[in-house]
Amino acid sequence: MTEPLSINLGRSALLVMDYQVGIVTMHAPGSAAALERATAVLAAARRACLPVIYIQVGFRKGYPEVSARNQSFSAIGQSGRFLLGEADTGIHPAVEPQSGDLIVVKRRVSAFAGTDLETVLRAREVDTLILFGIATSGVVLSTIRHAADADYRMIVVGDCCLDRDDEVHRCLVEKVFPRQATVVTSDEIVPVLRSPK
Q1: Is the dihedral of CA 175, 177, 181, 182 positive or negative?
Q2: Looking at domain 9-194, what is its CATH homologous superfamily?
């Protein structure tokens, strides 16, 4: 960061995206460290009284939300995974929701597509999103694109994002995201949440 990061906590929210048992397991090589960093960011956000919003991908039995034309989601439908109420769909216990946290269920890649996330953010007068998720090239990229077009200020906690392709992750975090968001590490954001300016 070139200048000190300033956050208006009263207008900010933390988005924890797709940190689900089945998704964390698919990204096992880096997941233990990412979970530890995410836990620290969550703790700091809660101490700062930020709204914490979990984004969870989940489907009804029979996958009525999945079109055969959607390549990635039709594959999920054939796999039988990520049904609401099943173990792999649940938020990972290391970062589990606490009382007062919100869960927004999605059926597409972006946290905004077809969900009530924007309604929740508007109701709380949130204009700044602090966010991280799995995968960098999935939910994080899609959510950033939507949020940028909706004029949200974004702070991406890059080292709490994971992707199965390390080079794709690096390219997005270092080259693509900075065009629309401020990219920080967990070590940079935690002190800011402790002592906001």
Answers
A1: negative
A2: Isochorismatase-like (3.40.50.850)
HSE-CB of 91 using CA atoms within 13 angstroms: 20
Q: What tokens appear for 28 in the block?
A: 């096992």
Enumerate the domain spans of the chain: 9-194
How does DSSP assign the chain, residue by residue?
A: --S-----GGGEEEEEES-BHHHHHHTHHHHHHHHHHHHHHHHHHHHTT--EEEEEE-B-TT-TT--TT-HHHHHHHHHT--BTTSGGGSBPGGG---TT-EEEEESSSSSSTTSSHHHHHHHTT--EEEEEEB-IIIIIHHHHHHHHHTT-EEEEEGGG-B-SSHHHHHHIIIIIGGGTSEEE-HHHHHHHHHS--
Which of 119, 120, 123, 98 shows the shortest CA–CA distance to 42? 98
State the pLDDT at residue 80. 85
Place of tokens 């990061």: 5
Q: Residue 147: is the preceding peptide bond cis (ω within 30°)?
A: no
Query: What is the pTM for the complete model shown?
Result: 0.94
Nearest-angstrom CA–CA distance, 42 and 40: 5
107 contacts 74 by C-beta, under 8 angstroms: no
Q: How confident is the model at residue 16 (pLDDT cuts 50, 70, 90)?
A: very high
